[in-house]
Structures are given as structure tokens and as C-alpha cells.
Design brief:
325 residues, Rossmann fold, five-stranded parallel β-sheet, Glyoxylate reductase
Length: 325
């Protein structure tokens, strides 16, 4: 009997054709709708592999009852939706999709910074609402990007690529990270500093940190109060790193100049979310890596990781490497 692979979202046939030729595929077929929890739990009981998205909670309840499960391939660079410790305890490999989405996410991050700083969404709505009646010197005047100071919180691979893009705008680059990145300092001229110094100095604060117990709630009222009054805050890391109520109050009351967000504490958000009432907040639906080319590469990497594990080989991007020891 062929091993069974459960895919939790409808994916293009072209991306999974290699798996379909070798294994039994059980794919959730509803377009743009997450698989319900109860169905995920029931189907997982008899599968050999899971190809999951960040919308699925892969916890101890699921893993303990999935007696045949050998691999969880999470189609994302982050894996905070997966209980890696429990997976390791049960001998289940956990894989992610780093590297293939680095440039695409960096593109989106810098684009979000630019759109927010130059008030482009406000400007588009201004025209659509029939408000543009004449030209004036300070009509929707935004904030310069060139020669300003960019502060990156989380100087991983994506952060390094964002810094590289910022150099093209002659920006001064500060960063805060768990460890210093000497190679980024030498190549781009980025300067390592404390979290507090970055907040007080940067014109743009970009959060690209992963969600960990240390980073959860990292940005609160205290941190926004340290920032410049016209500073722009950008988050393309993870939503729970930010206290959204404190961010809302900071933007609304002019403590900071605005925000651009691709991630939120609880996703998806709806049109009643308080941050959407503020004109100087740009909100995107978690599309950091969402280009056709990159999403196809992410899916193909996930498929390849599954194939490697099912053939008892070392996968390309194993998170819990200790299970291979």
C-alpha cells in the first residue's frame, strides 16, 4: 500500500506531480478555506506525511494520535504553528521552507515601507473618492526614505536582504539581533546596537524577528514611546510580537507616525479591526512570500522534503535535526 500524504490546502497539480506519481494524496479541496480542525485530526490518524500551512495548529493532540506520521512539511519559513518538541519526542521530522522565499519577502518588506512612508494607499483612495480637485504643495506629503535611518529587528536572511535594498536608497542601517552578523556589517555597513538605541534612533523600525518566547510581545507601549514621533513601524515578522492595542494607541495618538503590517496577532482579521480605521496604517493579508514563482518553489521544496523522509533519506531543510542522530 502506498504511503498517504495529507495536504491541508488545495495546491496546483504541477507543484505536487512528483508526489502524485509515487504516493496516495489526500488533499483538502476547498479553495482558500483552511481545513477544519476536526477533519484535520481525523484524517491525520492514518497518514504518513503532512504538508501543512501556517494556518494549521500541529500540536500534541494531533501528533500523538497520528501513529503512522513520519514527517510534517510546513510550507513556510516559520514553524511556530508546529509543536516541534512533541514531534521530536514521537520521532516525526519537521521541515520548513527557508531561503527560497528570502528575496521575495525582502521585496515585500521594502515595498510596504515605501508605500506607508509615501502615503500611497491614502493617495489612491483620495482619487477614488473624488477628492482630488487641485494640486497643492503639501498634498499628501509623505516621509523621505533616502538618507534616513533604518532599524532592523531580526537580522536573519530576510533582514540582510532588506538591508541590502536599503543601501540602494543611501540609508543608514542599524540592527538588533540575538547575535551579531559580522558579515552583514562588513558587506553593507550595518551597525549593531541595543534594542533601545535602535528604537530611539531609527526613522523606520522594521520587525523581521521570528516568534519565540523571547520575542512574543516584544513591541508594547513602552517600546513605541521610545520611538521618534514621525517614525514608521513595519512588521513582516509575526503578529504576536506586537501588542496591537498598544500599536493602535501609538499611531492614533501621534506617538509614532504610522505603521505597515503584513502580519497580525490573530489571522485573518476583518474590516472591523481597529488598526484599519487609521489612515496612516497600511495592512496586508500576510503576503510576504506571495509571488507565483516563490510559492511554487516553497511547495516543491515541501514535497521534496516529504519524499526524502519517506525514502529514509535526509531532507533538505530539517528543523529538528536531532531525530536523525
Amino acid at each position: 500500500m502506498k504511503p498517504i500524504i495529507l495536504i491541508t490546502r488545495k495546491l496546483p497539480d504541477a507543484a505536487i506531480k512528483d508526489l502524485k506519481n509515487q504516493y496516495h494524496i489526500d488533499m483538502w479541496e476547498e479553495e482558500d478555506v483552511p481545513i477544519p480542525r476536526e477533519i484535520l485530526l481525523e484524517k491525520s490518524k492514518n497518514v504518513d506525511a503532512l504538508l501543512t500551512m501556517i494556518t494549521e495548529k500541529i500540536d500534541e493532540e494531533l501528533i500523538a494520535n497520528a501513529k503512522q506520521l513520519k514527517v510534517i512539511a510546513n510550507c513556510a519559513v516559520g514553524y511556530d504553528n508546529v509543536d516541534v518538541e512533541t514531534a521530536t519526542k514521537y520521532g516525526v521530522a519537521v521541515c520548513n521552507t527557508p531561503d527560497v522565499l528570502t528575496d521575495t519577502t525582502a521585496d515585500l518588506t521594502f515595498a510596504l515601507l515605501m508605500v506607508t512612508a509615501r502615503r500611497m494607499i491614502e493617495a489612491e483612495k483620495y482619487i477614488q473618492n473624488g477628492q482630488w480637485k487641485s494640486w497643492s504643495p503639501f498634498l499628501l506629503a509623505g516621509k523621505d526614505i533616502h538618507h534616513k535611518t533604518l532599524g532592523i529587528v531580526g537580522m536573519g536572511k530576510i533582514g540582510s536582504k532588506v538591508a541590502k535594498r536599503a543601501k540602494g536608497f543611501d540609508m543608514n542601517i542599524l540592527y538588533h539581533n540575538r547575535t551579531r552578523k559580522i558579515e552583514v556589517e562588513e558587506e553593507i555597513g550595518a551597525k549593531y546596537c541595543s534594542f533601545e538605541e535602535l528604537l530611539r534612533t531609527a526613522d523606520f523600525v522594521v520587525c523581521l524577528a521570528p516568534l519565540t518566547p523571547e520575542t512574543e510581545g516584544m513591541f508594547q507601549k513602552e517600546q513605541f514611546n521610545m520611538m521618534k514621533k514621525d517614525a514608521i513601524f513595519i512588521n513582516v515578522g509575526r503578529g504576536p510580537i506586537v501588542n496591537e492595542q498598544d500599536l493602535y494607541e501609538a499611531v492614533k495618538n501621534g506617538v509614532i507616525g504610522g505603521a505597515g503590517l503584513d502580519v497580525f496577532e490573530k489571522e485573518p482579521i476583518d474590516e472591523t479591526h481597529p488598526l484599519l480605521t487609521l489612515p496612516n496604517v497600511v495592512a496586508l493579508p500576510h503576503i510576504g512570500s506571495s509571488s507565483v514563482e516563490t510559492r511554487m518553489r516553497m511547495i516543491q521544496l515541501s514535497c521534496s522534503n516529504i519524499d526524502q523522509i519517506l525514502k529514509e533519506k535526509i531532507p533538505h531543510t530539517l528543523v529538528n535535526k536531532q531525530i536523525m542522530l
